[in-house]
Design goal:
Helix content is 24%, strand content 27%. The protein has helices at 13-25, 64-68, 129-140, 152-161, 185-197, 244-248, 295-307, 341-346, 396-408, 413-417, 435-447; strands at 2-9, 31-35, 72-75, 78-82, 87-90, 95-103, 107-109, 122-123, 144-148, 168-173, 201-204, 208-213, 217-222, 227-229, 232-235, 239-241, 272-274, 324-329, 332-338, 351-359, 371-379, 385-392.
């Protein structure tokens, strides 16, 4: 039987970063990472293997971080955990004894109970190289594609597939707007307009009721009676944590369905940690479960777990999930962090909002300038920032990170009003009308 000080199960971003962090903080410990596939894929890059990347093989997650840090790699599949004897068992009958175990076993796609959902031609999104090669081939053989779900995955897939000539693309979303879980209506609408401009047909506020056809799907029947012809369906309605093996091992499962963890990513067994999609997520503000699965959150959790395996580093703890998102639709970039206005009000917060619109270069006549919109949400009582959203050009991806940091540090509107920032005509809006500052000023004016 093999023996390792630290065993990491899972080869995604969470697994790799936790192993590398563990080796950094505990260099004398031997570390092994076990994943079930020979080559892993970069999760965030999956939508872009169909056109922007001309091959699925250009989205392979590199093993160099493991090699550089002298972390062993084994290809196998976890089947059980013997907590009493601290042994993990694998499909090959291999066993490894551990001191500390990190579970980064991910999630699995949600398959809705729609009649006909088991027909051929209906695909979930899998983080598997061979699966993605097959899906890419089938997409190029298709003419009519229906995407079920207008969240981030569905919108990003539609955006990417619209670049392939000859495809008719439909998004079916049961809510009134696309991306409504992360953006308020005034930011979702411009995204929908951009999607329509790209030729993508939106079916909002309706459900897929039935997949019709013989052995293979041929039509999708919607709740409004409309019937769409289809060659291929992509189910993009989310995922659920993989917890079966953890449950069988007697680890606590949280109310939201993920493996329960504390602020240091420890499970109910102090020698077992859980990170990434499989771990329970709790809201930064309310501590309620939130179904947020992002590589950025997974790697943050991975660094917390990796540093706290043997002794708690109080400077590294998980105080809750903020949910910082960014995406791109055509030439429109957008980001969201924390609570949207609608969600904040549903939770009972009394809020004020500030909005700023401008240009991301100065003067705005410079080539390549983009219109930008920033919306900030604050507690009316304390002035503390609760959330923010950005819409504009490529700079939106970094502006939302500024807002995310402000949320983590519980910054107040008056502090953002006097934010000191670097500006340059080619790189940023003018310092006189920097949108984060102007949005904070706009919110404060509603108090004064």
């Amino acid at each position: 039987m093999k023996k390792y000080d630290i065993v990491v199960i899972g080869g995604g971003p969470a697994g790799v970063i936790s192993a590398v962090t563990a080796k950094k903080y505990y260099p004398d410990k031997n570390v092994i990472l076990v994943r079930k596939v020979e080559k892993g894929v970069i999760p965030c890059g999956i939508p872009y293997v169909f056109s922007s990347l001309d091959s699925v093989d250009k989205n392979i997650m590199p093993d160099k971080p493991l090699e550089t840090n002298n972390i062993d790699l084994m290809i196998d599949e976890l089947v059980s955990i013997d907590r009493k004897n601290k042994i993990v068992k694998f499909a090959s009958a291999e066993e490894i004894q551990y001191e500390k175990l990190v579970l980064a076993i991910g999630s699995e796609p949600i398959v809705p109970p729609i009649p006909g959902v088991d027909k051929k031609g209906i695909y979930t999104i899998q983080k598997d190289l061979e699966f993605l090669r097959e899906l890419r081939r089938k997409i190029y053989e298709s003419k009519n594609i229906v995407i079920i779900g207008g969240g981030f995955i569905g919108v990003e897939f539609a955006d990417e597939l619209s670049k392939i000539e000859g495809l008719n693309i439909h998004i079916v979303e049961m809510l009134p707007h696309c991306l409504s879980g992360a953006f308020d209506e005034e930011l979702s609408i411009p995204v929908e307009e951009k999607l329509r401009d790209m030729g993508i047909k939106l079916h909002l506020g309706v459900k897929a009721e039935e997949f019709i056809g013989g052995e293979k799907v041929e039509q999708v029947k919607l709740s409004n009676g409309e019937v769409l012809p289809v060659d291929l369906v992509i189910l993009a309605i989310g995922a659920k944590p993989k917890t079966k093996i953890a449950e069988e091992a007697g680890l606590y499962i949280g109310r939201g369905g993920g493996i329960w963890v504390d602020e240091y990513m420890r499970t109910s067994d102090p020698d077992i940690f859980a990170i990434g999609d499989c771990a329970e997520k709790r809201c930064f503000f309310t501590r309620k479960h939130i179904p947020v699965m992002l590589a950025s959150i997974a790697t943050s959790e991975a660094r917390i777990a990796g540093s706290n395996l043997y002794e708690l580093k109080v400077v590294r703890e998980n105080r809750g999930t903020i949910a910082v998102f960014s995406t791109k639709v055509g030439d429109l970039a957008l980001g969201s962090a924390g609570l949207i206005e609608k969600r904040a009000k549903e939770e009972g917060f009394e809020v004020i909002t500030g909005v700023a619109r401008g240009v991301d270069k100065h003067p705005g006549a410079l080539p390549g300038a983009n219109q930008v919109m920033v919306k900030l949400i604050f507690s009316k009582c304390s002035g503390t920032i609760l959330g923010g959203q950005v819409l504009g050009g490529p700079s939106a991806g970094e502006v939302i990170n500024i807002i995310g940091l402000a949320i983590q540090k519980r910054v107040q509107a008056v502090e953002l009003e006097t934010l000191q920032m670097a500006t340059h005509p080619w790189l940023t809006p003018a310092p006189t009308v920097y949108p984060v500052v102007v949005a904070a000023m706009n919110a404060l004016s509603k108090i004064k």
